[in-house]
Each structure stands twice: as C-alpha cells, then as structure tokens.
Amino acid sequence: MASSYTTNTGIEKIGAGEQAGTWGTTTNLNLDIIDRAINGVVTLTLSGDSDTDVSLHTSDGALSDGMYKVLRLGGSPSATKTINITPQAAEKIYMVYNGCGQSVIFSQGSGSNVTIATGKAAIIYTDGGDGSANVYDLTAFFVSGQAIDGVAIGGTTPAAITGTTITANDSILPDTSGGADIGSASAEFGDVYIADDKNIKFGNDQDVTVGYDETTTDSLKVAAKDGAGLAVTLMADNGDDAGDEWKLNVADGGTLTLANDKNTAGTHVTHMTMTPNATVASSTVDFAGIVKAAVLGIENSSNDWTFEVSSNTLVFKYGGTGKMKLDSSGNLTVVGNITAYGSI
C-alpha cells in the first residue's frame, strides 16, 4: 500500500510495509511539518505590483511556506497584493501580521476573501471548499460577535477607536487633567443632553457649575462654589479692544455689579450696582453715569408718576395726566398752585 498525505498539512502517512530502512527519515520530516504547523513563523517578502500574485502553497511530504502557523508580511510592494492559498481543498488557520506597507488580500477560491491593511494583524481561516473556497477573518468575528470584558483598550499604546454608541457605566476620563478634548475645531459634536439636576463643572476646583435645576428653582442655574462670588465676562471680538468686555459679578451676599473696560482694555470699571435688602423698599440701584430713557416712571400700588422729555421739555405726569413741565429756557409751568414755605 503506497503512502498518502493529510489534506490540510501534507503529512505523509506511510503505507503498510513501506519504506523499510527509510521510515525514520520520513518520520523526522513529518515532525518538522508538525512543528511548523503548530508554532512555525515565516516572513514572506512581497514585491512588485498588484498584477503579481503570490502563492502560499502546502506541499505533500515536503517543507513549504504554507505549513507555517504565523505569517509576517514584509517587503515593499508598490500596490495591494493578493496571496493565493493552495491547495484549494486544504483547511488552514493562519495568524498574520502585515508589515509590507500595502494592503494584502488572502484568497483560496471564488468565495469570500480577507483584506488585511498594512500595520494590522488578523487570524484567518480557509474552509477548503476547492474552487468556491472562502477565507474568513476570525478576528472580526471575535470583536463583533463577542463581549470584551475586563480589558484595557489602548492602555499601553493609545489608538483611535471608531464605533457607534459607547455606553459608560461610570465615567469617561482623560489621561490627565485637561489632557483631552471633546471634539475639535473641524469635528464638532452635535447636541449635548444633560439630565435634570446635573451640571457641567468648570475649573480644576469645580469653581463654577452650570445646569438645569429641576428640583428647587426650575431654572438654568449658574453657580460659584461655596463661599465664592460669581463673575461672568461677556466679550465681543474676543475682548481684543477696550470696551469689548462687560463683566457681570454677583458677590457672596447678593450685590450685583456690571462693569466695562472702555477706559483700559482688561480693566473693568463698575457702571451699575444693585444691592438687595430684606425689604424691597430698602434695596438700591446705583448708576455711575447718566441714565437715559424715553420715559422714566415711579409707580406705587394705586397710581404712578412719569417723567418724559417732549420737544426739549421735561414733563411730569401723574396717572398719565400732565401736571408740570420745565422747558429748555427754564420756564416752569404747573396746572395747580405753587406753595412756598409750606409743609409736606
């Protein structure tokens, strides 16, 4: 009975009564083939363009590159290369690292192929389907079909992660404080959704928080940390010129000031101060400059006084009816009596 060979690795199966005196040589060769198939590593040097395909062949009873378990792809081809795995009836498993500078396609028949980009690695297998054989990427199945638990991704060498939805059970953290951005000047995020009573916190010491306060005030809340005042600077043109900045400040205790840097850029001078009091009547509003308005009014619970300018004349009205006027020449006109040395 003549020798035969295994389908997938080409190991010679010695026929009964064959190879007397040379049996050891064949056995040693078979052991070398098994050694390659289990742990063997080979570097395949690729060259040329995409029209020059490469054959990865497993020979019967002879050492060949197709028997190695690990394939390192090197060289410097000028275009994508195709490696044809033969025989087409062999079922093979390869661990591949592509370092040749071009993408490499693995094919066995007319079925599906696997493309490994340069700098990438994959575990592939062939189904040995003869002319219609397929090549599959096992690595892709592991990633897409299985959960990856307890593994640090990029823990040693960070790399880009592309995905659809990322669900975080705890936090998404930068490598260091201030060490990572969310989005960029050319890749902006869309809408940002913040839940009720949750905040965006600014500063290393969380100096300012911004959030929607559903529970207590039912409003957008901008708050300084405990014991600190809140300052908000509003800038036009990045605050480049004097007068571009207005600074709103709320002191601990409630006094509100509004300042501008018109006199000297970056130096804010207070224009208005609002000081609250437990009784509204005792609260004050102070203006550092002139107050201009078409109509000024003082209102109480029953009626109101207004002061307005009409044709360069200051008119005093009560309940909408004119009571006194003072023109630009200094003439004073009243609808009622003028009392001197009276009492109020």
Helix-strand pattern, N to C? EEHEEEEEEEEEHEEEEEEEEEEEEE
Number of strands: 24
Low-pLDDT regions? none
The percent range for helix content is under 10%
Can you describe what's shown?
The protein is mainly beta and about 350 residues long. The chain has helices spanning about 25-40, 140-145; strands spanning about 5, 10-15, 40-45, 55, 70-75, 80-85, 95-100, 105, 115, 120-125, 135, 200, 210-215, 220-225, 230-235, 245-250, 255-265, 265-275, 285, 295-300, 305-310, 315-320, 320-325, 330-335. The termini are far apart. The chain has 2 helices and 24 strands. The radius of gyration is 42 Å and the shape is rod-shaped.
Quick structural overview:
With 344 residues, the chain is mainly beta.
Pick out its properties:
3 domains; 344 residues; 5-stranded antiparallel β-sheet; mainly beta; 7% helix
Secondary structure layout:
Blueprint: E1 4-5, E2 12-13, H1 23-39, E3 41-46, E4 54-57, E5 70-75, E6 81-86, E7 93-98, E8 104-107, E9 114-116, E10 121-126, E11 135-137, H2 138-145, E12 199-202, E13 208-213, E14 219-224, E15 230-235, E16 245-250, E17 256-264, E18 267-275, E19 284-287, E20 295-299, E21 304-310, E22 313-318, E23 321-326, E24 332-334
Parallel strand pairs: 3-5, 4-6, 5-7, 6-8
Antiparallel strand pairs: 1-2, 7-10, 8-9, 10-11, 12-13, 13-14, 15-16, 16-17, 17-18, 18-19, 20-21, 21-22, 22-23, 23-24
